[in-house]
Amino acid sequence: MNNLLIAPIITPLLTGMVLIVFQKNVMLQRILSLVALVATIVISVLLMNQIRDGGIQSLQLGGWEAPYGISLVGDMFSALLLLAASIVSVCCLIYAFSSIGRKQEKLYFYPLFLFLIAGVNGSFLTGDLFNLYVCFELFLVASYVLITLGGAKRQLRESLKYIFTNIIASAFFLIGVAYLYSMTGTLNLAQLSIRIAEVGQDGLITTVSIVFLIVFAMKAGLLLFFWLPGSYSVPPTAIAAIFAALLTKVGIYAIFRMFTLIFYHEPQITHLFIGILAAITMILGGLGASGFSDLRKILTYNVIISVGFIMAGLVSFTSAGLTGSIYYLIHDILIKAIVFMIGGTIVHLTGTSNLKNISGLIRLHPQLGWMFFIAALSMVGIPPLSGFLGKVFTTQGVFEAGYYWLGVIGLVASLLILYSMIKLFMNAFWGETILSVEEEKGTTKGLLFPIALLTLASVALGFGAEAITGYVAQAAEELLNPNLYIQAVFE
């Protein structure tokens, strides 16, 4: 029993509740929000070290024995994602201080931001399928409000698409939960793994697994990403950055958890299907990123490409493939926040997201330009930056599993990422400077610091890969061995 497991959930949740009372005191909201999220970073590091030394940790709330009560389970995979999510949330919060505006700050921005983080953290830590649904709904409800902050006409149109899509996905989620409970009599993830292993994953259970895959694919942007490019390009920059960094990753996490712990018995059906979805996602995402000349659209389609690439490691179901996916997932959480914040800063300076109307920013804003260049190279997987190891291990795992076609598509997708990001860099930062400092629509005051923090974290992840290798290898080993998870829950 490890009581620390509940801290990453209740810390932002309780702080958010307190902040509702102090709606008009913006400075107090900023300070308490930042303290809560920094505390979550510390808790995540403590959990990682406890899991490294003592194995997977579990907590049965209320003293009820599993599987009858609410279970919280922390393995190395969830702890790594907790740490990455906490770092990104702190930097996006700091970015919001200078960019979100007083009007939005008084519209419960900080409580909603903390509720979103509480839901994301709860999704990573819950050991119960119904509570996974509850945590999903917590961060989704917060995101429904956050995506509309500002009230622009385009925002409202895209937010309706985002809300309706997630409502439909949530309805299918509940249908899948009901069917699975009727067949197994439990919703505890560890006991579900035992029950399905005992009775065998027959055709009906495989069908239910496909229902869950469709649900989480909609939330992750795996093929069913029709809602994503518009929804992620309309909110204020700090919100778009946290959406791009975390919300699709929760869907990815859920797919990894379900298809390594519960539905892993028929990989020739389920995992092959995931592979086909991943391949199509990478191709369509790459075409979108290459074809558009709108800064926001290029960045959102790059989110889609990364979803497909991360899934390729799961499809391989090998140690190298899963190790690569975990590396790349952590890297992608950091990098997507960086490029979305830089993209939003460019729009803030120039007043446009059309690359044809932006040029030569690097002369007036060299720090912004070179941080974007580092992030772009990292996304492509240039050594020794943070994306390199993830791409190498994932490609190795896919080839080891015999999915050569998927590996080749992953490499082609990397070239499309390179083309789209270099196009963005050359158009926005290189060339003749169009705007003088006096003509710029905004300022970078207060915006560069959080971007620099994340860039340092990303560079450290690449250059200091040896320090995190043991943690990632342990995470991959735990995913490949469901018995470790089951023993931690029922010990």
From TrEMBL:
Ranges where the NADH:quinone oxidoreductase/Mrp antiporter transmembrane domain occurs: 127-416
Membrane-spanning segments: 6-22, 31-48, 68-95, 107-124, 130-150, 162-183, 203-228, 240-263, 269-287, 299-320, 326-347, 368-390, 402-426, 447-473
UniProt key word Transmembrane helix: yes
Record localization: Cell membrane; Membrane
GO molecular function: antiporter activity; NADH dehydrogenase (ubiquinone) activity
GO cellular component: plasma membrane
One family name in Pfam for this protein: Proton_antipo_M
GO biological process, one term: ATP synthesis coupled electron transport
Similarity-based family: Belongs to the CPA3 antiporters (TC 2.A.63) subunit D family.
PANTHER family: NA(+)_H(+) ANTIPORTER SUBUNIT D1, NADH DEHYDROGENASE
Name listed for the protein in its UniProt record: Na+/H+ antiporter subunit D
Organism (species): Paenibacillus paeoniae
